C-alpha cells in the first residue's frame, strides 16, 4: 500500500494573516471602488439621461445652446464632472485588471499600465478643463459665429 498524502483545508470562515504584507490591500480597495463607483455611475448616468432626454425635447433638443445653458449651472458642472471622473477611473481600473490578467511579461505589463495611466490622466485633465472653462459666448468673438443665445 502506498502512503496517502493528506491535505488540510482550513475553515472558510477563518481569517488569514498575511505574512510579509503591511498596510492597505490595494486590490481589495480596487474591488471595493469598482462596486461603489459602479452604483454611483448608474445613478449619475440614468439621471443624466432622464434630464436630457425624458424631461427635455429628446435628442433633437440637445445642441450647443443646451449644453451652454446646462453648464451655466455649477450643479450640472459637478454632476458631469463626477460622471467624467468616475467613468474614466472605473474604466481605467477595469482595463488595468485586464492588463494584469493577460500581459504575461512584466515589461509589457508596465508599459501598458503606464500608457493607460497617461491616457486616463490626460483625458480627466482635458475634460475637467472643458467643463469648467466652457464659455458659449466668448468676449471678442465674431458675432456671426456665436450661437443665438449670445445675442443681446
Automatic annotation (TrEMBL):
GO biological process: tricarboxylic acid cycle
GO CC annotations on file: membrane
Entry superkingdom: Bacteria
Subcellular location per the Swiss-Prot or TrEMBL entry: Membrane
Cofactor(s) essential for the protein: heme
Keyword Phosphoprotein found: no
Pathways per UniProt: Carbohydrate metabolism; tricarboxylic acid cycle
Keyword tags: Electron transport, Heme, Iron, Membrane, Metal-binding, Transmembrane, Transmembrane helix, Transport, Tricarboxylic acid cycle
GO MF assignments: heme binding; metal ion binding
Transmembrane segments: 32-55, 75-95, 115-134
One Pfam entry name: Sdh_cyt
Bilayer topology: Multi-pass membrane protein
CDD domains in the cross-refs: SQR_TypeA_SdhD_like (cd03500)
Role: Membrane-anchoring subunit of succinate dehydrogenase (SDH).
Name of the protein: Succinate dehydrogenase hydrophobic membrane anchor subunit
Source species: Brachybacterium alimentarium
Amino acid at each position: 500500500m502506498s502512503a496517502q498524502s493528506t491535505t488540510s483545508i482550513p475553515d472558510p470562515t477563518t481569517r488569514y494573516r498575511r505574512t510579509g504584507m503591511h498596510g492597505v490591500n490595494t486590490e481589495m480597495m480596487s474591488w471595493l471602488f469598482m462596486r461603489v463607483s459602479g452604483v454611483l455611475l448608474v445613478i449619475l448616468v440614468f439621471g443624466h439621461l432622464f434630464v436630457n432626454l425624458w424631461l427635455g425635447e429628446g435628442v433633437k433638443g440637445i445642441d450647443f445652446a443646451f449644453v451652454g445653458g446646462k453648464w451655466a449651472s455649477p450643479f450640472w458642472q459637478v454632476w458631469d464632472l463626477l460622471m467624467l471622473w468616475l467613468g474614466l477611473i472605473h474604466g481605467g481600473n477595469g482595463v488595468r485588471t485586464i492588463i494584469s490578467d493577460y500581459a504575461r511579461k512584466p515589461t509589457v505589463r508596465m508599459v501598458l499600465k503606464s500608457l493607460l495611466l497617461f491616457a486616463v490622466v490626460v483625458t480627466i485633465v482635458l475634460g475637467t478643463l472643458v467643463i469648467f472653462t466652457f464659455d458659449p459666448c466668448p468676449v471678442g468673438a465674431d458675432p456671426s459665429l456665436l450661437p443665438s443665445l449670445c445675442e443681446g
